[in-house]
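Below is a filled-in request sheet from our internal design queue. Each sheet records the structural input a requester submitted and the sequence that came back. We keep these sheets so that new team members can see what a complete request looks like end to end.

REQUESTER: design group, bay 2
PRIORITY: normal
MODE: inverse folding
CHAIN LENGTH: 245
BACKBONE (tokenized):
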């Protein structure tokens, strides 16, 4: 599984770069920067202070400022259209990373009982791969002039975190993780058919199989057939309405 992930990683980053390039070609990024400049100009005109103009000049001379990503929100722009789907993808990947990280911490603390070494290795590997996915998607957002998403701006974030921390066995964690992996797989499948940007489509297509392999492994751990369905549905796909940014 990890070998397959490493093989597609360069392609995943290439497709994300294509997404950014296509956004530039469409003028989406130019429009976002125009909106940002207008908003800044309106603020300065509104306060009308010489000090504000001096502050702007100081910022300009210091170079491009790093966007504030503490809350995972856009800086001077918004996640709309295909970029909202990208933002959703980052949030889902961050949620998976947090879930596996919490499960590993709980395993180390002994709250999950006896955890087979293979299960711990899988959780560590899956977490690392989700981190790679989040970086690829965040590169699209920052390439479009928006802030990277570092948190989990999802309406179900607290409930998912509580469920992971309430788990008392490896099986319980595996069941929760399976739900996250299936959701990510189906969300990417839905995105492939519902976004217009070719780079985003290719990025989703390069990540979805890895998420499906995670799910197959978790099915096996739970004593279920690894590939239970002939086709992947989209009934469990996450909706952009889940985003809280």
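RETURNED SEQUENCE:
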């Amino acid at each position: 599984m990890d070998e397959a992930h490493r093989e597609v990683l360069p392609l995943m980053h290439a497709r994300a770069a294509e997404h950014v390039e296509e956004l530039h070609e469409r003028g989406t990024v130019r429009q976002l920067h125009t909106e940002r400049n207008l908003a800044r100009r309106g603020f300065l005109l509104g306060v009308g202070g010489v000090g504000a103009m001096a502050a702007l000049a100081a910022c300009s001379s210091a170079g491009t400022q790093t966007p504030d990503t503490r809350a995972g929100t856009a800086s001077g722009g918004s996640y709309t259209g295909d970029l909202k789907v990208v933002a959703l993808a980052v949030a889902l990947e961050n949620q998976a990373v947090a879930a596996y990280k919490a499960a590993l911490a709980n395993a180390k603390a002994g709250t999950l009982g006896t955890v087979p070494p293979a299960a711990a290795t899988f959780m560590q590997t899956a977490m690392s791969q989700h981190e790679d996915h989040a970086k690829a998607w965040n590169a699209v957002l920052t390439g479009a002039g928006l802030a990277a998403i570092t948190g989990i701006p999802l309406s179900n974030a607290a409930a998912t975190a509580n469920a992971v921390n309430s788990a008392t066995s490896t099986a319980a964690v595996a069941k929760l993780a399976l739900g996250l992996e299936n959701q990510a797989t189906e969300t990417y499948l839905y995105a492939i058919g519902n976004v217009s940007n070719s780079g985003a489509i290719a990025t989703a297509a390069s990540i979805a199989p890895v998420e499906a392999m995670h799910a197959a492994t978790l099915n096996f751990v739970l004593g279920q057939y690894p590939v239970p369905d002939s086709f992947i549905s989209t009934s469990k796909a996450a909706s952009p309405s889940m985003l809280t940014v």
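SHEET NOTES:
- The CA atoms of residues 85 and 233 lie 18 Å apart.
- Residues 32-76 have pLDDT under 50 and may be disordered.
FILED BY: M.R.
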